[in-house]
Write a structure and sequence with these properties.
Helix content is about 5%, strand content about 40%. The termini are far apart.
């Protein structure tokens, strides 16, 4: 076969996302439900979760081809992304997947209990993710993905804009081939920055902030197998749901006292936002550190990492995207 003259640019690949409206195990196909995530670059599917076994058997001292076993039955797949948020619908879809709340403000309480993720049921929050390939015969369609981790961050980079990064997970065999999906879902321009967050409080006091980051972890893993491809019978989402983050603020009279709350294990609050279109509120947090940097050109700063906590009906977090 002659050398192929095509040279694909990483910028030719695209990432499509749709929250599934049907049953788990059925890929979304309605164009109007798909939006594009204009990521800086598209990461391919991580295929390392396929079933593999490679042990030398008897007969010779060197592995034979038959000593290698590879199967997609019982396998799992992940895909990571980082997106500078430029439309609110994409962020709303991501928040729905990670929180199982269906509208803004997206909230998780201390009494949170996961939805039922069972093949053929429509009770969980799943998504179809498509990597559009410039070689149209090599698109990747991931069915019934769950979002196991989502990080929201803002700092001075990328114009101060909000970034969303995370990991999709699926136990369903990816479809490799031509996808007919042409995303036409609404994408309302939404470029929110740290400079739009006029409300910044730590422990109830107003602060001068330079960076904020928050990660929500909602683990999931496939269990059981069914069908000719041994796709999952269910996803288990029984592991701990966590939310944690950090905020970098000026070290001054409003923040120096927070070290006492860290040392005493006192419950406090952290909030960043504008109270209307973008607002991230962590009503109860426990500080997990107090990292000062006294010798900075911009003045003394402190990073305060924290874990979100909630008891019963208390909110672990409340995030407005409007």
């Amino acid at each position: 076969m002659a050398i192929d003259s095509n040279v694909f640019s990483g910028k030719q690949f695209e990432l499509y996302l749709a929250n599934e409206s049907g049953n788990m195990g059925t890929a979304e196909s309605t164009n109007g439900n798909f939006i594009k995530l204009a990521v800086n670059s598209v990461s391919d599917v991580d295929f390392s979760g396929i079933t593999q076994e490679r042990n030398l058997r008897v007969g010779q001292q060197v592995k034979k081809p038959t000593d290698h076993f590879v199967s997609q039955k019982g396998a799992s797949y992940t895909m990571q992304f980082e997106w500078i948020v430029d439309h609110k619908e994409g962020l709303q879809k991501l928040m729905q997947l990670i929180s199982e709340d269906t509208s803004s403000a997206f909230e998780v309480s201390g009494s949170f209990s996961p939805g039922v993720y069972s093949h053929g049921a429509a009770t969980g929050q799943t998504a179809t993710v498509i990597i559009s390939n410039p070689n149209s015969g090599d698109d990747r369609t991931l069915t019934s993905c769950i979002l196991t981790e989502l990080t929201l961050s803002m700092d001075g980079s990328d114009g101060g804009r909000l970034k969303a990064s995370g990991t999709f997970y699926t136990g369903y065999k990816p479809t490799l081939g031509i996808s007919t999906v042409a995303p036409s879902g609404t994408e309302t321009a939404w470029n929110k920055t740290i400079f739009d967050c006029t409300g910044k409080t730590v422990g109830g006091s107003d602060v001068v902030a330079s960076a904020f980051s928050m990660t929500m972890n909602y683990p999931g893993i496939r269990i059981g197998y069914q069908g000719s491809d041994a796709d999952p019978e269910q996803y288990s989402r029984a592991d701990e749901y966590t939310a944690s983050g950090s905020i970098n603020v000026k070290y001054d009279y409003n923040t120096d006292g927070e070290i006492a709350h860290f040392l005493a294990g006192t419950e406090k609050a952290v909030r960043v936002g504008d109270a209307s279109t973008v607002d991230i509120s962590c009503p109860q947090v426990m500080y997990t550190g107090f990292n000062t940097a006294f010798d900075n050109p911009e003045g003394s700063m402190v990073e305060i990492p924290f874990d979100c906590v909630a008891d019963g009906s208390e909110k672990l977090y409340s995030i407005t995207v409007a």
